[in-house]
Design a protein that fits this description.
2 domains; alpha/beta; Rossmann fold; 26% strand
Length: 238
Amino acid sequence: MKIALIGYGKMGKEIEQIAVNRGHTIVLKIDVDNQHDLTVANLTLADVAIEFTTPSSAIENYRICFEAGVAVVSGTTGWLDQKLKVEQECLAKNGCFFYASNFSLGVNLFFELNKVLARMMKPYPQYDISMTEIHHTQKLDAPSGTAITLAEGIIAENGNKKSWTIDPAVNREEIHIQPIRKDPYPGLHSIKYDSEIDYIEITHNAYNRKGLAMGAVLAAEFCLGKKGIFAMSDMLKF
């Protein structure tokens, strides 16, 4: 498989190493120094583009990939207010778009565990729900996309919570998410159910970026030859 890497920072380099070890070829690398090379002509050399950049550049990156007819695998967060528009443009171009707020197998198992626990705790509103997420200082968005996915899972399954906020919660229908930025954290997410007599807490802590990079490469392999909108639940068959 021929891969274009859009975003060649620490994550891009991890993806490159895993992809090459799995027998794939990197045909294009885009970083801050050569953004002018992200063209339709250059992208047509690739089968799949793996995109890890910033919220401010992601939408335009997707658009160019759709124009080139190249499947897109993206882990960029912070742009989800435009997700419907992006998916509509992908479908209009008969493209392929695979988005995940986190590509780690462990995190996606954690997503499912989070939903199960949220359902179990629904009859017990005396337990207030809050979340902490810790990432490295280079991460620009807060809360993380993973934290938002976790919060949305709780809201969908629990019923006692209606929204999330990074500000102090003003009522018990809000999930307070505390984003912390300090190095060298790749990513920690902890969900706490707290009452006057005890608390229950589940946590996922990533040791490094390797799980994210492997998941992104597996997603690229999954997308080869496909059309449509996909997520980790499709690939992992949850």
